[in-house]
Amino acid sequence: MCLVMTVEPGLGGQKLIPETLDKVKLLKKYIDENNLEIDIEVDGGIKPENIEDAKNAGANIFVVGTAVVKSDNIEETIDTLRG
Description:
Blueprint: E1 2-5, H1 20-33, E2 40-43, H2 51-57, E3 61-63, H3 66-69, H4 74-82
Parallel strand pairs: 1-2, 2-3
Helix pairs in contact: 1-2
């Protein structure tokens, strides 16, 4: 597994830094080109509005904290995140 931090580490509730998804794309390309079996985990700023962008970049494991904890409906938010 390879972890890509999509925010500056250390403080919850930050917004995802869009440029970090370029790193995910590059990593996914390397993994595919070398026939490796490595999961890509993203951590930071993941929420229903941007999880598809992270998936499309190549991530397949998502750390979601604030988006769930501060949700008005936790179950609905989790269902939305799962797609």
